[in-house]
Amino acid sequence: MSRVKVNGLPNNKMDLCYEALNGSCGKYVRLYSVHIPMLIAVMLITFVTVIGNLLVIISIGHFKQLHTPTNQLILSLALCDFLLGLFVMPLSAARSIQGCWYFGDFLCKLHTCIDITLSTASIFHLVSVSAERCCAVCCPLTYHSCIGFPTVLVMLSTSWLIPAIFAYVITFFELNLQGGKDFYETHVRCVGGCHVFFSHGPAVVTSLVSFYIPGFVIIGIYSRIYMVAQKQARSISHQLNQLRKCYSSRSTRRQAQKATITIAIVVGVFLVCWTPFFLCNILNPFIGYATPPMLIDALVWLGYVNSTLNPFIYAFMYSWFRKAVRIIVTGEIFQHNSSRKPLYL
C-alpha cells in the first residue's frame, strides 16, 4: 500500500500505526460514511453472536428434556461460536477497522491460534453431528446402542483437541511460514501488524485439514442420509392404513427428520460462509499474494457471520428453542423446577 486516501483524496504521506517507528504498518483511512457503518456492523455481529449462542447454551444446559446426544453436540458447537464472539471477534474488529494491531506479538499469535482452533473446531463438530444424524436415519434400530453419551464424549474430545493441537503447532512453531519466510519478512511483516500469513504448502495443508476434507466428508454423509430418507419415505407411503397405530413412532420419525434438516441447513450455511475465505486462502500464495488485505478481512468476517446465524437457524426450525428463550427472557428460568418444564411433547 503505497498511498492512502484521506477524505477521498490521494495522500502521498501514509498514515502509520506507529508514527515514530521505522517499518510501521500503514493504517486504513476511510471516509466517515464508510467507517461508522463498518464499526456498527462488526459490533452488531459480535454482540448478536455472543447473546444468541449464550441463549442456546443456557437452553440446552438448563432444560432436562434437551439433554440428548444431538443437543449435546449442538451445545458444544454453540460454545465454540460463543467463544469466537467473545474472544476473537472484538480483537479482529479492532484490526479490521484500522488495519493496526496494538496488542503485541504474543497476543497476535494467541489470537490467531484461538481463531484457527475455533474455526476448525466448528466444522469438526459438524462432521460429528452429521455422523450422529446418519446413524439416527440409516440405523434407527441400533441408534441408542451406538450413540450414547460415551460416544458423544469421544466425538466432542476429537472435535476440540485435534483443532487445538493443529492450530498451536501451526501458529507457535511458525509452520505457516515454511517456504515463504523470506518473502514474509521482506514484504509482509511490519510493526503494528498481525498478519495471518501462509506460504504455498502450509496454505494447502491448512485449508485441506480445516475445511476441504471435513467439508467433503459432510457432503458425503448427507448424500447418504438423503438417499436413505427417500427410501424410507417411499416405504412409509405404503403403510398409511396403519396411521393410528404408528402415530407415536411417526411423530418420533418426524422429530428425527426435522433435526436432520436443521443440521443440514447449519452445514449449508457454514459452507456458504467459509468457502470464499478458504478458496482465497488456498489460492492467494499462488497468485503472488495479490488479494487486497481489506478483501481478506471481509471474507474472514463473512466466515464469522456463520457463528451469528446458527442460533437463528435453531430459532426458526425448533419451537423448543423459541419456548426456552421465552422462559429465559421472562425470568421463569429462576422458578423452582424450571429445568423440568416440558418444551415439547
TrEMBL record:
Q: Name a single GO cellular component.
A: endoplasmic reticulum membrane
User: Where is this protein localized, as stated in its record?
Assistant: Cell membrane; Endoplasmic reticulum membrane
Q: Does the keyword Repeat apply?
A: no
Q: Which UniProt keywords apply?
A: Cell membrane, Disulfide bond, Endoplasmic reticulum, G-protein coupled receptor, Glycoprotein, Membrane, Receptor, Transducer, Transmembrane, Transmembrane helix
Superkingdom of the source? Answer: Eukaryota
The G-protein coupled receptors family 1 profile domain extends over: 52-314
Q: Which InterPro entries match?
A: GPCR_Rhodpsn, GPCR_Rhodpsn_7TM, TAAR, TAAR1, TAAR_fam
Concerning its family, UniProt says: Belongs to the G-protein coupled receptor 1 family.
State the PANTHER family in the record: HISTAMINE RECEPTOR-RELATED G-PROTEIN COUPLED RECEPTOR, TRACE AMINE-ASSOCIATED RECEPTOR 1
Full protein name: Trace amine-associated receptor 1
